[in-house]
Here is the input.
Amino acid sequence: MTALAPLVTLFDETEGTDLLLTEELADLYGGLRFPVRPGRPHVFANFVETLDGVVSLGVPGKAGGGEISGFNRHDRMVMGVLRAVADAVVIGAGTLRAASPDHRWTAEYIYPPLADAYRSLRATLGKPEPPLNVVVSASGDLDLERRLFRSGEVPVLIVTTAAGARRIGGELPPSVRVAAVGDAGLLSARAVLTAVCRVRPCERILVEAGPRLMGDFLAEEQLDELFLTLAPQVAGRDGAVARPGFVAGKRLAPEHPRWATLVGVKRGGCHLFLRYGFPVAE
Here is the structure.
């Protein structure tokens, strides 16, 4: 395998404190800084989409981000960096189902060649444990035999409703906790963040959820930043299967559009790595 070339920084107006990346990660990614949010975590999301705005092909076995990016190594390296600096990674039940049965939302899993560098970065940041893997499911309809839940390799928090908690039951390993938020119905982004911070104090929370939960975070103005990889493919849509953009289930514009500010652009080959900031409701 050829060596991974460094990303080329084309534009950078990010603000905040520079994180002390390891030499290897700094060479590959460049500088990385995040604003400090006194009294609350900095919430950021990561998505990859095609040129025509598709984030999932909607085909069983090929519904994940790998098919969108072409299993691009730069994209996976960046995903690893973002997971490595996060205290918690939030996903939805749909994202869980689309992933490999062995998937854990850690930096080492997504890009193993840099596992040691990611671990060193977390140690430098004072985060010796893996990020808390947060699974959001109102119904509690989850495959609890997945490695994520059974291995004990990562701490897991399931955020659900009271009805969902009853469905899950109590036969879970010590590494898995359940937080019941409300009696029934949908779970708000605010409620999810509150549940996460009760379990683990967080400086930074990474959202890798699907389009519906992402829509909640944007509609409730709970997302500070979006890291968006633009992959150089056109997927197309014929109406036979759903091929959503990174927001679904919410209509924002024209009534409540969410405008973003471009704060960073990097290039890795033909892939662009965009970074946008959003105003957030306090």
About this structure: The first helix runs from residue 23 to 29. The chain has a mean pLDDT of 95. Residues 80 and 169 are 32 Å apart (CA to CA). The first strand starts at residue 8 and ends at 12.
